[in-house]
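Aim 2 progress. For SusC/RagA family TonB-linked outer membrane protein, the working sequence is reproduced below.
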Amino acid sequence: MKKLLLFYWLLLGCAVTTLAQSHVVKGKVTDASTGEPLVMVNVQLKGTTTGARTDAAGNFSLTVPDLQAGVLTFSYLGYQAFTQNINGNTNISVQLAKDNKQLDEVVVVGYGEVKKRDLTGAVTSVKGDELKKVPSTNVIESVQGKLPGVDITKSSGASGAKVNVTVRGNRSIRADNGPLYIVDGVQYENIQDINPNDIQSMEVLKDASSTAVYGSRGANGVIIITTKKGVAGKPRVFVNSYVGVSQVAGYPEMATGPQYVALKREANRTTGRWSSVADDPLIFNASEVAAIQNNLWTNYADLLIHDGLQQDYQVGVSGGSEKTKIYLSLDYFDEKGLFKLDRLRRYSGRLNIDQIVSNYLKVGMQSQVTYYDQDSRRDPLNQANKIIPLGKPYDEAGNLVIFPNQGVMINPLVDEQPNAYENNTRVTRTFVNAYVELTPFKGLSFRSNFGVTLDNSRNGIFAAKNTIDRATASASRSQYNTGSKSYISWENVLNYQQKIGDHSFGLTGVASLLSDQRDSSFLQGEGQLLPSQLYYALANNVSGIAVRTSYMANKLISFTGRINYNYKGKYLLSLTGRSDGSSKLAPGNKWAFFPSVAGAWRIGDENFMRGQHFFSDLKLRASYGIAGNDAVPPYATASYLTKIPFSWDDTNSALAYAIGSQIGNRNLKWELSSTTDIGVDFSILNGRIGATVDYYDTHTKDLLLQRTLPTSSGVGSVIQNIGKTRNRGVEVGINTTNVSTRSFTWSSNIVFSKNKEEIVALADARTNDVANGWFIGQPVKVFYDYQKTGIWQTGDKDEATKYGQSPGDIRVKDIDNSGAINTQDRVIIGKQVPTWSGGFNNDIKYKNFDLNIYVFARMGQWINSEYAGKYDPQGLENSAPVNYWTPENPSNEYPRPNASISKDGRLYIKSLNYKDGSFVKIRNISLGYTLPASALKQLHISNLRVYVTGKNLFTFSKIKEYDPERGGDLSNPLTKMYVAGLNVEF
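Predicted structure tokens for this construct:
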């Protein structure tokens, strides 16, 4: 009993001692600028799990073991973290300052930089880390669906395929609608050269105020890319690498052998030529009959499509001193396509140097050399999809059968045979931009940029006699094409910054000269002496020798002025004027002036906003400006001569010349676009949700449009300033922080773009141009045809007869109810541009793991489905396995097969092709793991991250086994890819 009492008193003493060492610390947390209490602030005792949160009045209470050595950390979303030593205090008052890092981020604009808070125009910025999340050949592809107002689609699934980009819709009808690319201050056409790992940031300038500083070049939007620079301090070495396997992202099947046989039998049953299997020899040749009897048939697409491979290896170094900074990177990229003979290899090196010579002089250079070695091929799927599938592609000895089934269609595999086909392109592109920057005194700087891009290319093509291209020819063909481009940019930029009291001024003046020269040569011959000579030794070709050369050049001279004014950081004004002179336009019309004005009001900084807690930031923007476009070929103002065949009599030929098919226009002038933009930027709930919303309206007039002329004129066309278009729409970008704790964060980015594109006027004012498919009030690209309503059924025979048709024929809508189908019954079936598009990007981090899930949608677009039109009612070629009409199968999908009517002769056959191409796809899923610092220290590594990525994994649409982003074509299908990668930094 005594022992038990002793133990009790010992426990009680320990408890009293513990209580004596515990202390309660109370306090209050408020906003540093407004004094308002902050709710739900995290208060943590540093180095422990002990913590608390503030209540509705901003108060907190926390028990700590030591009043002297304890340290409290305060963290709150949208505010800067704060650390406070207790130092014996039991009552602590803390003021947290707002975290304006996002607003203070520097955004690159034309010829300068501004803080995000001071932007007056519609500008979207993406940092380099975001660009690396989606492995891609072209960096622009990685931001698909992430930029409001920017429509991005991949042109095909071939290696090195280009990316189609438009900013806020198509303004021009036939002139170029692509944006201007600026890399390190210099115009650069080949954006696919730039490795995403070399990019510091990407900015997209969309409204006229932002793009006006680039004048005519910025009419279709501007995408500015800034590459990385060296950083003073210990040199950093980084290695980035990934390897991925690509597979076809769904490819629809053509008819099998039995399905093709059934179609051809039905086509001949319709004409009365076939009634049973005994009649097969009447419609099939002997080889085909044997194949049918032995059930021998081939799916050629399966033999042609293989898994592809994509890999990238980059090593770089960044470092320097306070005066000298260097960034160097080397990269090797290799992409094998889905087909044999389809491969791209890219070798590139980048060197950026910045040198401070003195307090007022700085020089530097950004340079890159890129070399491409690319093998391409004629897409074989067109041939594979139409060849009769009966029989086998190889004989019993394993030799390729050039013309299977003794037919006229060549084997789609012929190009893959040794010495049969080669299409090789080699390109060397050198980009150098050197600058000198003077800062004679504070606030004034003068910078002179001199950029040169040299591009040399060679393309050699050899197609042997028995290849797809030369299937009907008697000899091989060799081609050798060369080209060179030199683009020179010299720009002088003067900047002056001054602040007087509450007034801040920024003045910018620019004088620039741009020169673009290009030449090319084309050589061709037929009947190469030795196939191994390919496209060399063209003099050995026996016939078809042809030689052509070309040259073109143009220049642009510009003068620009810009004034930025800021009053108390709340009232912002930007005035820009640019005068451009283009050598491509007619004398008297070469020069044009492009003005713009933009203003912004930072409502969130007003005194009357301090008492509210909903808005963390609020800014209203408005802008108006005019931009020009001279996107026509050089010499469009001049008529040219072309050589034509001529003879005095039946035996003697002579040289003769005539005006070319396109006549010159001596009155050609600028195409002009005026844009109004109203936008609002805001964040709410202490920065947890931030958004940017823009409404824009662009009117374009004096379109540079190629107009078809009547044959009586003796020429084919002329480029004129005719017509008007309009683009208006809404863009929304939302950033959210859904969860934010010490070990787990989840943030999202939502993008929505809706653009209404329409033609306002054409050559004859309000008259449609049906021949070119241009219609007033409609987008530039639409489908105009008869509207299919089904198939005429047996019960509708009498009504079908009124329209000159029979049961089993395609039934289209009689729009005007005239009792006859004619051209007046054609309607707009659908538009090729989306009604809206959007993206939903999610970044989730848990401790050292990171997960990215990105969804992209493009809705309201229609496509011309080549697969839907893959139906040959005669049975002469293979078809898609469609549900066609027969007396026993009264389908409403496809007409009855008929051996006596060709596909082109079938009425309204193209109405089968048009499909709703809307889609939603999971663009990217990426899971990464970053090794903890403790493990990295032992390996002497600064950072190491491994990751796996699935790209373009799932597509949801009404079209099965096909990615509608391709636009309906069956050639070069799009791919999905599985990637494993590594990022290391020393």
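The chain has eleven helices and 49 strands. This observation will guide construct design in the next reporting period.
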